[in-house]
Task: structure prediction
Amino acid sequence: MDYTISEKVHCLIIGSGPAGYTAAVYAARANLKPVLYQGLQPGGQLTITTEVENYPGYPQGVQGPDMMVDFEKQAKRMGADIRYGIATRVDFSSQPYKVQIDEDKWIQADAVIISTGASAKWLGLESEQRLNGYGVSACAVCDGFFFRGKEVAIVGAGDTAAEEALYLSKLCSTVHMLVRREQMRASKVMQERVLHTPNIKLYWNSEADEVMGENKVEALRIRNNLSGETQTIPVSGFFVAIGHQPNSDIFKGWIDMDEAGYILTVPGSSRTNREGVFAAGDVQDKIYRQAVTAAGSGCMAALDAERYLSAKGLA
Result:
């Protein structure tokens, strides 16, 4: 294929958020002259989060969007070139690697750091999106703390949903758990733990019909799939735990992934199967998915990239 290359960069970072911005800070300090394209959602998932209380260094907590502004400012101050734009295609067949931006221009890069993150799967309810960040959440570990002593609901049937329900049960007075079918998909041991937790109330063959409330979650209307009957339960929080989708589609065929699309990295590093391509953050982490772990892996990716470029005589 014939490419018209418009630019050559030393270290290209695809995607922002804690992983991308941290990689940019470290890469800039290592004089790699990083160029970062922010992607479809500049700042990542934290830009749709309200208060963040579990990130070190913010003793009073911080609004998610404000924290991402701080990350971006720090990366820029270190000398990173932060740009608007979406990576729409890649060609990793030969070095330097080629990446298309906004379906328009192609750029070359000696090293590439992928930090495109993951997107939560949602039910598709209008009320769910309207109240996202105001009682609706896709991360119990992130937001469960705000509902201490309160009643919450969670929807999902897999291991992630079971883990999050158990986590919430330690904080909340009652956890109403909606399972779409007559049984869960979670592993037997996780099912047993859920079933034997007194303050988790299970609703079989049930789905969320509407999240109720004007400016915050006040109740949840649920529908029984067998009878069609609905009921309303008063809750302060609604957690959607039906999975995440890593934003890795454009790398398929080039980078090794697991069956869900998470990029595989060499244990203890950010290296992928493609020499000179590194991955950080939620696009390669389906276990922790926290801002602080994403930032840590962004640091790893920048250090790995610097060592790689130095070994090649390019840094």
Summary: The chain has two domains: 5-119+245-311, 122-240.
